[in-house]
């Protein structure tokens, strides 16, 4: 039987948790870190904030200059850990062979389990829906025969989501008072999905084979 690995990653994790906790933040450019008049860096930025060039590890003052109307909030690690534990518990309902690689992502060996859900894609859909129902956060899922390719597939899924957001960029600009948003600037994948968004590690023993 061919091995099948999923890479599940929670989209814009810290800011998504904050948006679930405060629905008024949904669809808005949210920056998690601290207030822009304080020294520090961006811990995470929502996709709506990334449209304006804001990304994690950027100085807060720089982020504020890029888009002063962004909503800056302090992080709450307890909320993020609570959501992360729920996330891992959901994954273990689908397969016991789990390898957390961050607070918001994990590999899941689902070899042989797809028959319980109709197909591999249907299983991935059920995982995404369960995460959305139980935690309120969107997730991206990559599927392949190895961890490396599964991660690439997951990043392709994220990039497609950003493209859909980018196609609505004019509407976002009008909503937040801009007629154009950094016209002509090409965002690289690492600008949109920086690894530094995953700065906290969940130290859980690996159950993967």
The level 1 CATH classification of the largest domain is Alpha Beta
Query: In angstroms, what is the radius of gyration?
Result: 18 Å
Bin the helical content.
Answer: 40-55%
Strand order of the largest sheet: 5-6-1-7
Number of helices: 8
Mean of the pLDDT scores?
Answer: 79
Q: So, CATH architecture of the largest domain?
A: 2-Layer Sandwich
Number of domains: 2
What name does the CATH topology of the largest domain carry? Alpha-Beta Plaits
Shape: elongated
The succession of helices and strands, N to C, reads EHEEHHEHEEHEHHH
Strand content: 15-25%
Oligomeric description of these chains: single chain
Distance between the termini: 15 Å
SSE topology:
Layout: E1 5-10, H1 13-21, E2 30-33, E3 44-45, H2 47-50, H3 60-66, E4 71-74, H4 77-94, E5 98-102, E6 105-109, H5 120-135, E7 139-144, H6 147-167, H7 169-175, H8 189-192
Parallel strand pairs: 2-4
Antiparallel strand pairs: 1-6, 1-7, 2-3, 5-6
Helix pairs in contact: 4-5
Walk me through this protein's architecture.
This protein folds into 2 domains: 5-11 and 77-168, Reverse transcriptase/Diguanylate cyclase domain (Alpha-Beta Plaits, 2-Layer Sandwich); 16-74, 3-Layer(aba) Sandwich (MutS, DNA mismatch repair protein, domain I). 41% of the residues lie in helices and 15% in strands. It is built from 8 helices and 7 strands. The strands form 2 sheets. A 4-stranded antiparallel β-sheet has the order 5-6-1-7. A 3-stranded mixed β-sheet has the order 3-2-4. The longest helix is centred in the last third of the chain and has 21 residues, at 147-167. The chain is elongated and about 55 Å long. The relative contact order is 0.20. The model is unreliable at 176-209 (pLDDT under 50).
